[in-house]
Amino acid sequence: MNLDKCINGIFITGTGTEIGKTVVAGGFAASLKHSGVQVGIMKPISAGDAVDVQFLRHAAQVDDPLKLINPIRLRYPLAPSVSARLEGKQIDLSTIAAAFSNLKQKYDFLVVEGVGGIAVPLKDDFLVAHLISQLQLPILIVADAGLGTINHTMLTVAFARQFNLRITGIILNMVQPEAAGLAEQTNPAEIERLTQVSVVGVVPYEKRLDTPNPDTKFLADFINQHVELDKLDVAIKGYL
Predict the structure, then answer these.
(1) Where are the domains of the chain?
(2) What confidence tens digit (pLDDT) does each residue in 202-211 have?
(3) Residue 21 is among the residues annotated as catalytic for this protein
(4) Reported pTM
């Protein structure tokens, strides 16, 4: 299948969990929505509470059922393969494909948020990276802005390239309300030099977004202010 003809969305992944993917994904959707794009949102698998899914649905201003946005919800905040095993559940990946197909036909552009990082196992040896390959979406990597992120980001980029995933850019996210130090100031240029992938934004911590129902105009403006969406490699061409 021709990849270029499949690009009507983007997959937001991260270098780990609790890295700020949901704020970025929701902000991306809110920005497109306020630009007049018919944008949908999806989180194929969640593990733990449903706060992230509610945030995404609110940010995109859609009324799709949570079951469609998040077709597989697991109880424990663990790797999906482990959480499902503890619950005695079998993860049916076909439900993700069906929901994705439904949403893709309904909207002009679809923002999909992953669970954890791209090497997280969803079922047996089936990883997030395998899911991205099946959905045929380019990826945006969200990483911590602080010390240690160079290693995590380089490993994520290298792993993505092993799966021939198209990387559209990297966003560095401040996950704590702390002032930027030398690491935060120097990491963007060093990551770009080492990975040859554009760092399209450095997102500061914002307490007003620590809620399931943020002001969507504020969220859109916040992302527009801190992320250069037009620098993303082909993923949103024609939508901005």
Answers:
(1) 3-231
(2) 999 999 998 8
(3) no
(4) 0.92
